[in-house]
Specification:
By secondary structure, the protein is of the alpha/beta class. Helices cover 30% and strands 29% of the residues. It has helices at residues 42-48, 68-77, 94-104, 124-139, 184-193, 207-217, 219-230, 243-247, 254-259, 280-286, 345-356; strands at 8-14, 60-64, 84-88, 111-116, 120-121, 143-148, 159-165, 173-179, 196-206, 233-235, 238-240, 265-270, 274-275, 295-303, 309-320, 325-330, 333-338. It is globular and about 60 Å long.
Length: 357
């Protein structure tokens, strides 16, 4: 049986706003707390992936202060708990958020598995195999990222190019380059070349390895995070970092601030049926369809209608003779667009916000 120091601490990031799934995802109840793929929310499904007691320790959650009650309620619904619920006073992107969690770890050498709370992983066994295969190099001080083996020239994800295989590891490679979201031509070239993986935004490393990298590449960010935790207010599992200190942290992602600059960065490929559920189109792809290829959720009736995503919350939706549409209702908010156009949702959110000012 593993001792606590050998267990991996799931570090779950739940502070995102999820505007790409508006009007269902809102500032009050963002994407990670919605039941998009079944009876559990994305946040709850993430917690369920961390139940293997011989591999995982009790999680640390980093989220927004305004969602504290929602997070605790959803934890209770699935019988989960957290060793800390760190509540960011303001959004500063992933690199400072992860620093707060690293500083909250009881042991400097604690292994942290950093995961977004709004992704879907259908093959938990493959996911755990990739984690276990990466443990030796993470313990040795490597910053490990997990790359999803691509099955299409996807333009909505960043990519990681693998380098040489790491000595002593059967599955992990040095991370050669991080590639921004490509155009279709470049995505096709990377798929054909091989050795490129979708960047899933999932990481495994020792807390002290991450903080040491921050000391070198993002010292101002580390100072802000450290000061905010030293002055933090605590209430049970809730930790409230100091607002003034944390607000001074530069807002940057872990990829830009650390992973693209650090020396010992590894990528472990995995094929765990992963999706970031980043748009209504991606949700359509992973949702079970009826005989007419409609993905229907809620109180819906689709007659002589084909290949639509129809999602009803607090409303009833009936269609006749329509095809290839996305129709989403959340109470009195209704959105209709063509399938394939869901990348424009943010524009609709911005226009709607301007009209309500």
């Amino acid at each position: 049986m593993n001792s606590n120091k050998d267990l991996v601490i799931p570090t779950i990031l739940s502070g995102g706003s999820g505007t790409r799934l508006w009007p269902l995802s809102t500032d009050q109840r963002p994407k990670q707390f919605l039941n998009l793929t079944g009876s559990l929310s994305m946040f709850q499904l993430t917690m369920e992936r961390c139940r293997q007691s011989d591999l995982f320790d009790i999680p640390i959650i980093v989220g927004s202060e305004k969602h504290a009650d929602l997070a605790e309620d959803q934890l209770a619904e699935v019988g989960s708990n957290a060793q800390a619920l760190i509540l960011e006073p303001c959004a500063r992107n992933t690199a400072p958020a992860i620093a707060l969690a690293a500083l909250a770890c009881k042991s400097p050498s604690a292994l942290m598995l950093v995961m977004p709370s709004d992704h879907l992983i259908k093959n938990g066994e493959a996911f755990q195999k990739a984690i276990k295969a990466s443990l030796p190099i993470a313990k040795a001080g490597w910053l490990v990222t997990f790359g999803v083996e691509p099955n299409a020239p996807e333009t909505g994800y960043g990519y990681i190019e693998q380098g040489e295989q790491i000595v002593g590891s059967a599955r992990s490679f040095s991370a050669k380059t991080f590639v921004e979201k490509p155009n279709l031509e470049n995505a096709e070239k990377m798929l054909e070349a091989g050795g490129f993986h979708w960047n899933a935004g999932i990481f495994l490393f020792r807390a002290d390895a991450y903080l040491k990298a921050m000391e070198v590449y993002a010292p101002e960010m580390l100072d802000a995070a450290t000061g905010s935790m030293e002055k933090a207010r605590r209430d049970g599992i809730r930790i409230y970092p100091d607002r003034n200190c944390f607000g001074k942290a530069p807002s940057d992602s872990i990829d830009y601030a650390i992973m693209e600059k650090a020396e010992k960065v590894a990528v472990t490929p995995m094929n765990a049926e992963w999706s970031d559920v980043g748009s209504w189109d991606s949700l359509y792809e992973i949702t079970q369809k009826d005989s007419d290829e409609n993905a229907l959720t809620g109180e819906t009736v689709a007659v002589n209608s084909n290949r639509n995503l129809i999602h009803a919350e607090g409303a009833s939706i009936t269609t006749y003779g329509v095809e290839d549409l996305i129709i989403v209702a959340n109470g009195d908010k209704i959105m209709i667009m063509k399938r394939g156009d869901s990348q424009h949702v943010k524009r609709l959110v911005d226009l709607t916000s301007e009209k309500t000012k």
